Amino acid sequence: MSETKRVLAIVGSLRRESLNRELAVAAQAAAPEGVEVVLAEGLADVPFYNEDIDGADAPAAAVALRRQIAGADALLFVAPPNNGTISAVQKNVIDWASRPYGESALTGKPSAIVGVGHQLDTTFADAQRAITIAGGVVPAGATAEFLVSSLEGKSPREHESVAPGLRAVLDRLLAAELQNA
Predict the structure, then answer these.
(1) Contacts of 149 (CB under 8 A, 6+ apart)
(2) Which DSSP state fits 148?
(3) Per-residue pLDDT tens for 20-59?
(4) Under DSSP, is residue 102 helix (H, G, I), strand (E, B) or coil?
């Protein structure tokens, strides 16, 4: 019997009714057998990264975030476009996870990028750059954008095109995780 693979979904929006949060919930439902998608918790409680407060007395929320990332087999960044780039929430996650230098929880971690928005090309490029600089790995094809206009006014959880796209990304992510194991 194979072990269940844990994918941590890091949603770049803190808003409860965010389309990207709904996309993360859709990813939970679309996960293939043997894959559990878990939403990262406590992101609103993580202070902006500041090396002065890092170290042995790092804030509990930052320590918990690092543990969530370290305990995941792979990461799913659910990236909303914020002024054409990565959200401050996700950038902060990457900043905390990548430190202290030489101890990045992202090192070698397979990571996928998905999102809902009007235009996501620069957002995804910036997210991928930040993830890879911090040591994460974004495998080829482990991205999927869902344009608001293509959802036809439906929630990502309700539109028939979303689940297959998410499953394909999760399959690529799982294949990359197995190669790194």
Answers:
(1) 118
(2) G
(3) 999 999 999 999 999 999 999 999 999 999 999 999 999 9
(4) coil
